[in-house]
Amino acid sequence: MDWLERATSLRQWSRDGVRAPHKPLLLLYALGRFQADAEDELRYSSVEADLKRLLAEYGPARVTTPAYPFHHLANDEVWEVRTDRGPGSPGTAVTTLRASGATGRLAPDLRAALRREPSLLGRMARVLLDLHFPPSLHPDLCEAVGLELELAETGAHPVPERRLRDRRMRELVLTAYEYQCAFCGYDGMIGTTPVALEAAHVRWWAYDGPDDVDNGLCLCSLHHKLFDKGVLGMGDGHVVMVSQLFIGRSPAARDHVTALAGRRVIGPQPGIRPVAATHRTWHTSQVFKGSPRPGAA
């Protein structure tokens, strides 16, 4: 059984690029718990709060429940659910999952494979991270699910074939924006090498975002992270949006984040297309958190 293929092929609800990373988040969480204790069972009532936090931080902006992946992941044959009455999930009703003592864990065959081949855990986690989340979020997400992730050894076990990134995108985007952050203007270099400047996908690559300049922004590391976390966005008229949910009391937080609200995004060079409206709209609906702060008068 090819477990990497199973991780690649999780069945998820999908429509018009709407994010539904519920199953990948639960599977990453389960892999982290397995790494800590291979015999551990995850009682729904005990892990519900953890899963809610993961969905709130790394899932879409809309309110959702961890009951759905807890029940439905079993259909992908990587997960099993049991209740006080025996094997099988009682459904997606939160009250029933709690009352029935529902527990979940990795499927028996997968647990056996992970024991035989410990590096499989790292390769499965890499597949899930690469397919569903931008690289800027990988370290924080691994920490959130408790994964100590070593470099995957894939030479003898190639990752299933999938869409490849265009390695040229970073240089094309940084050149288009003349090596400065489109939000704050930061343009630091060491010699002739830009430092802490990154090419951000507006519509994430994992959700069919193309490796095109009109889907990219040159951002400093701080603003790239905040953009991918939904603190910052890009509104109509190409102005910076700052979420009202962001709280920063220090002068640094005000100067580097909240003061950006309503500021005009620094556009690309003349003759290069700015971020396409369809990609901006996707980011606003799928990543940006809450409502934007009003801009400075």
Q: Give Rg in angstroms.
A: 21 Å
% residues in beta strands: 5-15%
Q: How many separate structural domains? A: 2
Q: What is the H-and-E element order?
A: HHEHHEEHEHHHHEEEEHEEHH
DSSP helix fraction? 25-40%
Q: Distance between the terminal alpha carbons, to the nearest Å? A: 61 Å
Strand order of the largest sheet: 1-4-2-3
Main structural class: alpha+beta
- In terms of quaternary structure, the protein is single chain
Chain-averaged pLDDT: 89
Low-pLDDT windows of residues:
151-159
Query: Looking at the structure, what is the overall shape?
Result: elongated
Find the count of extended strands (DSSP E, 2+ residues). Answer: 10
Q: What is the makeup of the main sheet?
A: 4 strands, antiparallel
Q: Which descriptors apply to this entry?
A:
about 300 residues; alpha+beta; four-stranded antiparallel beta sheet; two-stranded antiparallel ribbon; 12 helices; 10 strands; about 35% helix
Characterize the structure shown.
The chain has 297 residues and is of the alpha+beta class. It has two domains: 143 residues, no CATH class; 118 residues, no CATH class. The protein has twelve helices and ten strands. The strands form four sheets. Strands 1-4-2-3 form a four-stranded antiparallel sheet. Strands 5-6 form a two-stranded antiparallel sheet. β2 and β3 form a beta hairpin. The longest helix has 15 residues. The chain is elongated, with a radius of gyration of 21 Å. It starts with a helix and ends in an 11-residue tail after the last helix. About 3% of the residues have low confidence.
